């Protein structure tokens, strides 16, 4: 009797979890919002916000409509352990502070380039110890890759070095390095 009841109850729960894309967090856009402001205040990474709202918010995040509700996280792919990038941050430095390795940082933040040269101040990164990133959009877009026009890069072009240093050997196994 109990097992029949349990099976009956379990069906809708199972059916729900099969569909990626169940929104577990949402946010109503307010006047004056910017994407990274929403991300920072709600512990959602820049990449996650961009991927989930691909097609809803444009890549420059210039079309936020006050009053409109957007999704912040999908069930099972919702990283809420986040870090807001500060001046002089490096991938190695912030990974170490967060207690994760760079493999995990790159997996959860696929917009970061292989040299970690495109971090900007105010960017919100997922620093979870497990992979919680939503899958890339099927249309092949790479969300959140470019530094917003209003943001300050952590590495300015004058300071940027074409780095081929020996100390980034921990990035060698990253599968997507070859594509960049
Ligand atoms: C975001 O994370 C910080 C640090 O863990 C926490 O103090 C804060 O309450 C969180 N904010 C939200 C909106 O979840
Ligand atoms: C990075 O950390 C993850 C999670 O702790 C671990 O599974 C993985 O083996 C680590 N990778 C490297 C290259 O150390």
Structural features, described:
Helix content is 26%, strand content 10%. By secondary structure, it is α+β, with helices and mostly antiparallel strands. Bound molecules: 2-acetamido-2-deoxy-beta-D-glucopyranose (2 copies). One 2-acetamido-2-deoxy-beta-D-glucopyranose (NAG) binds next to helix 5. One 2-acetamido-2-deoxy-beta-D-glucopyranose binds next to helix 5.
- The coarse overall form would be globular
Distance between the termini: 58 Å
Radius of gyration: 18 Å
- Bound ligands, named by name, code or SMILES: 2-acetamido-2-deoxy-beta-D-glucopyranose
Structural class: alpha+beta
What's the overall average pLDDT, rounded? 82
Encode the helix/strand succession as letters.
Answer: HEHHEEHHE
The portion of residues assigned to helices is 25-40%
Number of helices: 5
Strand order of the largest sheet: 1-2
Low-confidence stretches: 3-19, 163-180
Please give the number of β-strands: 4
Our estimate of the beta-strand percent is 5-15%
**Could you give a short account of the major beta sheet?**
2 strands, antiparallel
């Amino acid at each position: 009797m109990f097992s029949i009841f349990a099976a009956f109850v379990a069906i809708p729960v199972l059916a729900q979890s099969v569909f990626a894309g169940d929104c577990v967090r949402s946010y109503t856009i307010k006047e004056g919002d910017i994407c990274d402001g929403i991300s920072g205040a709600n512990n959602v990474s820049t990449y996650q916000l961009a991927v989930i709202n691909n097609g809803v918010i444009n890549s420059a995040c210039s079309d936020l409509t006050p009053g409109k509700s957007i999704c912040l996280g999908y069930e099972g792919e919702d990283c809420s352990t986040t870090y807001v990038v500060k001046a002089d941050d490096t991938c190695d430095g912030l990974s170490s502070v967060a207690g994760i390795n760079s493999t995990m940082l790159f997996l959860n933040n696929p917009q970061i380039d292989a040299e970690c040269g495109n971090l900007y101040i105010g960017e919100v990164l997922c620093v979870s110890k497990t992979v919680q990133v939503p899958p890339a959009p099927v249309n092949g877009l790479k969300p959140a890759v470019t530094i917003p026009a209003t943001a300050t890069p952590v590495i300015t072009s004058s300071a940027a070095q074409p780095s081929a240093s020996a100390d980034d050997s921990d990035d060698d196994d990253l599968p997507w390095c070859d594509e960049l």
